[in-house]
Amino acid sequence: MKRPGELKLPHLFKPGKIGKYETKNMVKYGACCVSNYNTRDGYITPRELARTRVIAGTGAGIITNQGAYPDPLGEGKAYFRQVAIFDDKFLPQFETIAQYIHDNGAVAIQQILHAGRYGGIDLGYCIQPSVVPQTLPHFRPPRELTKEQIRAIVMQHADAAKRAIRAGFDGTEVTSFMGYLLANFNSRFTNQRTDEYGGSIENRGRFMRELIDSIKQATPEHPLIVRLNGAELMDRWGGNSEDECFELMQQAVDCGVDMISVTVGWQEAPESSIGRDVAPGHWNYLSAKAKKLFPNTLITFGNRLPDPVMANQCIADGIFDYWEVCRPMLADPELLHKAAEDRLDEVRRCIGSLNCLSRLFRDLPYTCAMNPTLGHEVEPEYHVTPAAVKKKIMIIGAGPAGMEAAITAKRRGHDVTVFEKGERIGGSLVGYASNDLARPDDLMSVVRYYETMARKMEIDVRFNTEANAKFMRSILHQYDVCIVAAGSRTDMNAYRHIPGHDKLVDALDVATGKVQPGKRIVMVGAGKIGLTLAESLCKQGHEVVIVEEDKRIAGDVMPSFKWRHSAWIEELEIRTLTSSVLAGVTTEGAMVRSAKGEETFVEADTVIVSGPRKANHDLFHEFQWMVDELHGAGDAVIARGLDAAIHEGYRLGVRI
């Protein structure tokens, strides 16, 4: 019997076929990130096995295991803890993963990832078709491949494919996504060779064709998937046009690949491809074009397409055959099951903050802002289990930290009450989300998730209730545990020494609409709060000048999103005074002092202060002798961000 969501999304949940293998639905879990959970020499760890067991249970019809590098030197290795597949000694753990996937009724695909220009992380150099200098300083200097080395790499891929099949995988995948070796040969930017592997698009595609032919000969009964750019986004560097990208896809089709995964962008691309500043469905035209050009080849796609409803419609409209999804299932591994059960309102949406990539690019194991258990599946203390002792828990604050703690504690059987001084769930996130220039609805989806779960789990949330010492005395001995999740505030006292400090306006009051600023604005602070509000106000028609004490803006912004704020500041032509502090405020504007002591008067109607932020520690001192257990979570401990709030709220809820 079909579940109610399957009836609503019939195209997504219909059976499919790749090669000789049938799939239970039209969903492909994509190998979007290297986890960095493994050993430095390429062995798969229990931490990785625990993660992949969860991935195997997502319900996808095809599941792609993360990319393994195929060469013994590690020239193809992009990440410190990337898995390897260049030797049979690695196979036992691959066999376990393939079995996990098959146990859950899915087709198992192993990705082979040679990073090329972005590889050689342990070697101090990288290899690519030509010596093209790096545009990003953290990558290694390049060495040009010889023809002998090219032939060796082709054979390494074929051998890796054979190992994957011996380990129990049904097929393999090679990838050019993110600008890896396959993309380096295909692209005019990095392939400037003058021999048969360079020059014309036919020659640039030769490496790809040899790769496909070699793998298909090595594993003739097993499907091969190739991930190819529909758009490189590398025009600034002289990369391929979209037309050239599709010409290369035609070459892959002519070689007999079983499926093409259409991807977008390189790591060096100066514009976003998967962040929340890209609207869902923005890149669908690329897969639609591929499906039209190659009707007899399976097309899979999922770039910035997090919604099962949209994916179902895309399949119905012939935009692609399979929905390729990864990050939305990192955020919520139950996504597909919730869709099948018509519970999409309970989904933790991937908000496109790219916490996963920020961690990865710092050579750290990846985590997810929305999913506090990602990477901790192997640890029993992260599992939601019945509480040994049922307790009455009071939580101060209905922001992300408080609500995450409330939901998790409730699942374990505790009696939970949330006290919120405002009128709704969400805390300060509501105000700042409404000013987000990228995609406010992604951030507001966090609020809606907590509202939905509070309602469905019947969590008692009491609004317009401010917790203080007097309030606590009125409910003394009614609760066993108190979690302070009251967030942080702008530290207005930090400006008490400045003449005219009484004229300053708190950023939160502007963000929530309590204060309407004038036409001309000075924004003090260029962290994520100041930038978000300044960009929004400028977009609304205000004239904004930013004052920042540090040398650079966006100091507290995730590494993968810093560039976006910098680009917006440039696009909006917002004047920014860095290495400068606020020296005084008058009714006419603000006096700003540079690090060199030079003073500049900036005319303004409103001077807004967005930092420093101060954690609401007062309640810890007031409640210390009033409750058995006292804990803190999120910004109430130290002002940080959404990911820390969610993770800490969960850890408290799961362990109390």
Automatic annotation (TrEMBL):
Its cofactor is FMN; [4Fe-4S] cluster. InterPro entries: Aldolase_TIM (IPR013785), FAD/NAD-bd_sf (IPR036188), FAD/NAD-binding_dom (IPR023753), NADH:flavin_oxidoreductase (IPR051793), OxRdtase_FMN_N (IPR001155). Gene3D superfamilies: Aldolase class I, FAD/NAD(P)-binding domain, NAD(P)-binding Rossmann-like Domain. The keyword Iron-sulfur applies. Pfam families: Oxidored_FMN, Pyr_redox_2. Residues 392-622 form the FAD/NAD(P)-binding domain. Keywords: Flavoprotein, FMN, Iron, Iron-sulfur, Metal-binding, Oxidoreductase. It comes from the Bacteria. Residues 12-345 form the NADH:flavin oxidoreductase/NADH oxidase N-terminal domain. The keyword Iron-sulfur applies. In the N-terminal section; belongs to the NADH:flavin oxidoreductase/NADH oxidase family. This is NAD(P)-binding protein.
